């Protein structure tokens, strides 16, 4: 069984913000397969489905970004999923808008508190990540205001293409080794 986690903040206030690109990728996967997040437990909304003869859980933690690990840990413990079968999708300031980068392990990079929470709760850095580029602000602005801000109208085409690309990568991972998906999608 595999688990795909999209990080974000719950609530209408945060919908379509840069910090919620993980939620947006999960929503694209749900839309493609006519699935819904039909379970609320473990401080998150999730669904358990089957794709390519593999069971997969899609999860949106409802803990707010900085406590995401508090949702992921109990869910993977309950379903007996090892961290290597988890991919966490999150925003990355250090990648240009629309660029995705898959990695098998690593630290919280640039101080991403959502990833720091996941590492702390899982007790390991050995889980897969899909970093979704949101770029840095072009004008002087605090990082918090930037990541909690909505995308510019001019970014929407790039954003949509990148969400689709990230969803394609996650669908590929369901039936292929993560290393192969990294090689195919990190180009």
From TrEMBL:
Pfam families in alphabetical order: Pept_tRNA_hydro (PF01195)
Keyword Cytoplasm part of the UniProt annotation: yes
Site residues by UniProt (Discriminates between blocked and unblocked aminoacyl-tRNA): 9
SUPFAM superfamilies: Peptidyl-tRNA hydrolase-like
Domain of life: Bacteria
Site (Stabilizes the basic form of H active site to accept a proton): 91
Catalytic reactions of this protein: an N-acyl-L-alpha-aminoacyl-tRNA + H2O = an N-acyl-L-amino acid + a tRNA + H(+)
Role description: Catalyzes the release of premature peptidyl moieties from peptidyl-tRNA molecules trapped in stalled 50S ribosomal subunits, and thus maintains levels of free tRNAs and 50S ribosomes.
Protein name (record): Peptidyl-tRNA hydrolase
Record organism: Gracilibacillus boraciitolerans JCM 21714
Gene assigned in the entry: pth
């Amino acid at each position: 069984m595999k688990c795909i986690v999209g990080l974000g903040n719950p609530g209408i206030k945060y919908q379509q913000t840069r910090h919620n690109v993980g939620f947006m990728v999960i929503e694209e996967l749900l839309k493609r397969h006519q699935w819904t997040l039909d379970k609320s437990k473990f401080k998150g909304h999730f669904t358990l489905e089957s794709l390519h003869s593999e069971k997969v859980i899609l999860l949106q933690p409802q803990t707010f970004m900085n406590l995401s690990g508090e949702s992921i840990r109990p869910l993977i413990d309950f379903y007996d999923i090892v961290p290597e079968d988890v991919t966490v999708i999150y925003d990355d300031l250090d990648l240009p808008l629309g660029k995705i980068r898959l990695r098998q392990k690593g630290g919280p990079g640039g101080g991403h508190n959502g990833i720091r929470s996941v590492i702390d709760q899982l007790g390991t850095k050995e889980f897969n990540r899909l970093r979704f580029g949101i770029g840095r602000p072009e004008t002087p602005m605090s990082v918090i205001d930037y990541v909690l801000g909505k995308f510019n109208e001019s970014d929407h085409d790039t954003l949509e293409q990148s969400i689709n690309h990230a969803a394609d990568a996650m669908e590929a991972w369901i039936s292929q080794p993560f290393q192969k998906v990294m090689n195919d999608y990190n180009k």
